[in-house]
Amino acid sequence: QVQLQQSGPGLVKPSQTLSLNCAISGDSVSSTSAAWNWIRQSPSRGLEWLGRTYYRSNWYNDYAASVKSRITINPDTSKNQFSLQLKFVTPEDTAVYYCARGGFCTGGSCYSLFLFDYWGQGTLVTVSS
Amino acid sequence: EIVLTQSPGTLSLSPGERATLSCRASQSVSSNYLAWYQQKPGQAPRLLIYGASSRATGIPDRFTGSGSGTDFTLTISRLEPEDFAVYYCQQYGSSPRTFGPGTKVDIK
Fold first, then answer.
1. Beta partners for residue B106, in sequence order
2. How far apart are CA B39 and CA B100, in angstroms?
3. Which of B99, B75, B17, B71 has its CA nearest to residue A46?
4. What residues contact A66, with CB distance under 8 A and at least 6 apart?
């Protein structure tokens, strides 16, 4: 059974950097059939995919255009986890942040890396001074 | 960007009743790559349906997804108490992958 455990602060000051970690159990951040994602949810923006990291002989990242200039997602193979950093935050970045596994294999077939089958518990991050 | 519109915004029903939720896309969803998620208060979304009609592992058969192109439907044949939640559709065939705004199914 895959479990994702999030950690990180719930309050960040404007212009500072939001940092969250997602520890993986039951799978590997280096899996070649999954991608490791960050998704956020707010009343104003709904569910919004932010980005992902995945391993296919090399490490790759994809980021949403809306945050591309401010976001970094990094794997940590020694701890089997991945992280989110979002720089220069504003109150508009206030949201519940989730980590999620994308892609799964069942019945001999593997499915899209943008199907999110396991999620972390969510972290409410408030941007406020 | 494909915009997903869900209707109704809220559906008020009683346990045992049938729920029909709609998701309409602003353009055709590639390969019917349309998923449905369920979210309960304080919890993360849970994958129910992918590929428009395939149930995810462990999802009861009272949940049925259907549709193609731009019009998709999630049907819950007989509502159980644990089914009262918010349901989101997601298209994952085109970049950027997008979610709908959700339909809340609450108890009448």
1. B12
2. 13
3. B99
4. A48
Look at residues A79, A93, A81 and name the one whose alpha carbon lies nearest to residue A17: A93
Cis peptide before B8 (omega within 30 of 0): yes
Picking from B57, B88, B92, the nearest residue to A114 by CB comes out as B92
| Contact predicate B108/B14, CB 8 Å | yes
Residues 27-66 of B with CB under 8 A from A: 33, 35, 37, 43-47, 50-51, 56-57
Summarised one tens digit per residue, pLDDT across range B38-57 is 999 999 999 999 999 999 99
Angle at B66 between CA B63 and CA B69, to 5 degrees: 150
What pLDDT is stored for residue B47 in this prediction? 97
B96 prior amide bond cis, ω within 30: yes
